[in-house]
Design a protein that fits this description.
This protein is mostly helical and 75 residues long. It contains 3 helices and no strands. The protein has one domain. Helix 2 packs antiparallel against helix 3. The longest helix is centred in the C-terminal third of the chain and has 32 residues. The chain is elongated. The mean pLDDT is 95.
């Protein structure tokens, strides 16, 4: 993994944690700051954001299916 990818992954995780705590604009704010200095890092960050969000959606679907199969109500 490249340094850019490592930084993007770390920043995306931190930004999404803040977004979950109520600062929904933080993801875009970080993107703007990164884009002003490094388009490469901005693109890696936005890709990491999309991947993390897609993963969360997929995991929720799988968890809901497992709960349904086990007879527990979905979340």
């Amino acid at each position: 993994m490249s340094y850019v990818d490592e930084v993007a992954l770390e920043l995306s995780g931190l930004a999404l944690q803040e977004a979950e705590l109520g600062d929904e604009k933080i993801v875009d704010q970080i993107s703007e700051v990164l884009g002003a200095s490094s388009q490469t890092l901005q693109e890696a960050y936005l890709t990491a954001i999309r991947v993390r969000r897609a993963e969360a959606r997929a995991r929720k679907i799988l968890a809901d299916l497992a709960r349904k199969r086990d007879g527990t109500p979905p979340t």
